[in-house]
Amino acid sequence: MSGLRAAGGVAKKSAKKAAGGFSGIEFHKSKGQHILKNPLVVQSIVDKAGVKSTDVVLEIGPGTGNLTMKLLERAKKVIAVELDPRMVLELTRRVQGTPYQNQLQIIHMDVMKADLPYFDICVANIPYQISSPLTFKLLAHRPSFRAAVIMYQHEFAMRLVAKPGEGMYCRLAVNTQLLARVHHLLKVGKNNFRPPPKVDSSVVRIEPRNPPPPINFLEWDGLVRLCFGRKNKTLGAIFRQGNTLALLEQNYQMAAALHKAADGGQVDLVAAVNALAMADGKPDAAADDDGSGSDEEMGEEEEGGKGGGGGSARRRRGKASEGFKEQILEVLQRSGYIEKRAAKMSQDDFLALLAAFNAGGIHFT
Q1: Spelled out in words, what is the top-level CATH class assigned to the domain 217-359?
Q2: Annotated binding site, which residues?
Q3: Which portions of the sequence form the region Disordered (predicted)?
Q4: Residues of the chain with CATH 3.40.50.150
Q5: Which of 12, 240, 253, 273 could form a disulfide with 140 if both were Cys (CB 3.0 to 4.6 A apart)?
Q6: Which class is 13-208 in CATH?
């Protein structure tokens, strides 16, 4: 009997290994390593991604390869970007001697530092702490891809897909939905991972708008950032703040020089979005990556505590002239947005508001 038990144990271990088991590998929660272990969820993600036999698939954070193996069954090629050398070794071992060996390319480095190659579809179960910068890095990628199917922390995913008037609607939603169509696909409970994270997850499909909207994205984000600093206040109240007006007047005075070389106010989208993703002013505050920051907290940098232009550095710029204040309020009044609140404004509203300000020579950079 003991021999039969031993043989049975060996058989179970072999089966687990063949199925992409994780024996001998310790996962680090601090690095965001939560391996998706439920085969039904894995299959559902592959199905919803709509992978074609001619597709090159970019997978970010393949881990032990449970999702990778399913993608290899469907795709022409899979490019897996993995930072952990142990996972790279495990992934290499799994495809060695299989028909998929020549279909898999592994890039061993930090995805945020990688120059990503061409791909048709991105599928990713990512470390949640890079959710925001990675999303915008992908949206800045050229040539544009067909879709990205990404596993996010559930609350972050809800922010991505939120609509005007909903509680989760925020600057992240506005910026993302300007550049892409975003759909929530499925919620994934924490027990579907090993080790289980502290929060539930959700899978989101992102389809970039191609071509992207012909606007200066840095200026767009400047306006949206300001409006969402206090998203439940009226725009009239926000734009009456002294520090905000002082900053805008400075931009107004420099507008001709700043925009003369920008071909009608447009800038390169790739450069703009990359700058937003990687700089201190990246789209959405770091707190948003784990869902812990409120929109009001995200706006403190811009509002400077009491509302206005973001602390002592901006306060030193002085006060705006009364004439400029009247000019700002006239634009808001004429465009019909003076009593509007960012929390309930749509993409079209923000586009119309930006156009109204720009027509009056007022820019957000």
Answers
A1: mainly alpha
A2: 34, 36, 61, 82, 110, 125
A3: 281-321
A4: 13-208
A5: 273
A6: alpha beta
